[in-house]
Amino acid sequence: MINIMYRLLFNQVKKIIPRISETELIALRSGGVDIDRDIFCGKVNINKIIEDTPNKISKNEQLFINSTDILLDHIGQQQMYPNKNIYNTMDYIGKNGYLSMIIDKKYNGNKISIMTQSKIISKICSYNPSLGVVVMVPNSLGPAELLQHYGTEEQKNNYLPRLATGELIPCFGLTGPNNGSDAVGQIDTGIVKKIDGKIKIIIKLNKRYITLAPISNLIGIGFNLQDPDKLLNKEGITVALVEKNHPGLEQLTYHNPNNAGFPNGTVKGEITIDLENIIGGEANAGNGWKMLMECLAVGRGVSLPASSNGASKVATYGIGKYIKHRKQFKIPIGEMEAVKEKYISMFINTWIINSSVHYTNHILDKNKTPSVITAIMKQQTTERSRVILNHAMDIYAGSGICTGDNNFLTAFYNSSPVGITVEGSNTLTRGLIIFGQGLNKSHPHIYNLFNSIMTNNITDFKVNINMMVKDSIQNYLQSYKFKNKNVIKQLELLTMKFSSLSNFVAILGGKIKSKQMISGNMADILSNIYLAYSLIWYHNNYTSKDLDKIRDYCIEYLLQDSYVKYNLIVDNYDNLMIRNILKPTKYIISSSNLSSINNLYNIVKDNKEIENILTTDIYYKNTVIEKLERLDNLEKNKDNNEDYSKLYNDIISVFEYKIN
Ligand SMILES: Cc1cc2nc3c(=O)[nH]c(=O)nc-3n(C[C@H](O)[C@H](O)[C@H](O)COP(=O)(O)OP(=O)(O)OC[C@H]3O[C@@H](n4cnc5c(N)ncnc54)[C@H](O)[C@@H]3O)c2cc1C
Q: Among the options 145, 423, 492, 556, which is catalytic?
């Protein structure tokens, strides 16, 4: 009788599990898990977080971080492209080790820890975002990363040392007019053909949006390999490398991505390549998607979050100083609540980005590859950074809109949508990937359950479904607990409630793929929980006890957002019976205390420890921010009224272009 019940359940679950394509399956299987597994289990061990201390940055790596100032002084804030100096710049940054931060020393690279890489990228992006992109791309998913993991020894020896010095400038092209978010759906095809007795691949290329393509001389390409004559007996997504001037290859046009000033363009033409051009050779024909997904698991957790951190810190630090001095109605605009409200939102989001960047770097430096966490980081940091820059622009007002010397925001504002769009567009990452992959990857039972169904293994199914039901009941009962005043206890309760709610949402099965508003809000709760734990870790390792109240404000901010979303999901659950089961677990939401914004502003304003944190890993020499710092000092000395007024007037002036 019991066996019949299990069989019925097995068939029922089989019906609701989504149909998963090979490409989706590979994406789901790539990468590993970390604290995301604990969150899905409903219990994160705070002691474990507290005991998990970061490695010290080595002396050499610290020297490298410091020497980035020399690089930035040398290159300045000029846009990288179009710019006739671009090849000199590439040569300079290559020779100084900035293009090989992921390449092993064995191949003349300058491989450094993730934490150091992140700090360097953050610093460069805080001063010259277009240079940031140029440095970031060779150190992210592309030829160097793929070669190191999958290249033949011959390919590694041939390309990596030249990539390390900047002699070879890489780019990697997947995207075309018909394959954007669906990166390999209708990608260019490559047909296997025998030509003069040798097996070759003929590829028709039509790539767009490819970063560094206009200046690249080592082009990575992704294509769909087709083998109609069964010469290789392998098909599917394949990645290969071709050098500039390869017969038929066209690098003729470039795009202008929002005047952000970095090289981006097209790769087109019809080319014929050998099997040796495939990264890893013939053995890797058809393995491209797996190769890309495995590398992406780490890549998107580092560079884009680091650049968001740099931009956010510089905007928050600069605007924090500006609102202390800029006066309207005879008072500093920072004293006006409407301005304060925006500034505090900037501050909190910057603090969250900075803490989570540090925590994630630490996880990745332990050689973990948590794909759900890196997707969270990509989406959350780029999105929060955009919120910060929008507020910054509103506060800086006319000075932020008109370009010129005193405008320190335009470059970040223009670059912000790039991070939002690339490496898995945020709308798709939030609506589909974070929670969907979380259920399949981070959830303790669902993947095993799925596997038991795929392999028709009823014994495994029984074990997994029993565990899942047991956990679900336990977590559901726990989620009835009342809110405690302590924010960390509240976070623990939210973790439990999220875990319970995700089991109910999982019942939607394949429908989750189309219920992207539910999935997106679940993703936000999951992300908020991760970010909140990262704040605990960060404060434990990097701040004095005095700043614990900042940690608590930030966690509270994440909790409030999560409560609203938790209730939204419960109220919109399709099935009435389940909705009624969930309703008693809803949050009773009390109004935020508006005076806390005034309190937080008073804590943040002029706090030296906070200033030190905001100014670490950013660079702003000879910018208006340095002038604002001087203004701070002049203000303290009342004898310098005249100097103060002179500098104030200089700072609030806006660049004037001559009319010809
Ligand atoms: C400046 C820049 C640099 C780039 N650099 C590179 C590079 O070096 N190499 C490279 O190969 N590519 C690069 N890209 C391409 C980038 O990866 C794509 O732009 C991105 O994948 C989105 O594709 P799309 O612009 O065609 O948007 P579309 O795919 O048309 O998407 C439009 C909107 O629909 C949403 N959407 C699509 N599908 C779904 C779904 N299933 N569920 C929910 N929402 C969905 C998207 O999130 C987006 O909001 C770059 C792009 C830009 C703009």
A: 423
Centre of ligand 1 from the C-alpha of residue 434, in Å: 16
Torsions phi, psi for 332 (to 5 deg): -60, 140
Closest C-alpha to 165, from 88, 108, 216, 124: 108
From the list 530, 108, 145, the residue with the least C-alpha distance to 303 is 145
pTM (two decimals): 0.97
pLDDT tens per residue across span 268-327: 999 999 999 999 999 999 999 999 998 887 779 999 999 999 999 999 999 999 999 999
Nearest CA to ligand 1 atom 32: 181
What is the identity of the amino acid at 427? T
Determine the atom of ligand 1 nearest the C-alpha atom of 183. 21
Distance 388 CA to ligand 1 centre (A): 23
| DSSP letter for each residue of 21-71 | -HHHHHHHHSSB-SHHHHHHHT---HHHHHH-PPPPPPHHHHHHHHHHHHH
Name which residue sits closest to atom 23 of ligand 1, judged by CA.
Answer: 180
Tokens of 507: 């019942």
* CA 163 – CA 158 distance, rounded (Å): 9
Atom of ligand 1 nearest to the CA of 173: 11
Contact 478, 500 (CB under 8 A): yes
Identify the residue whose C-alpha is closest to ligand 1 atom 27: 180
For the question of residue 243 being annotated catalytic, the response is: no
Half-sphere exposure of 329 (CA within 13 A, CB side): 4
Q: State how beta strands 264-274 and 198-211 pair.
A: antiparallel
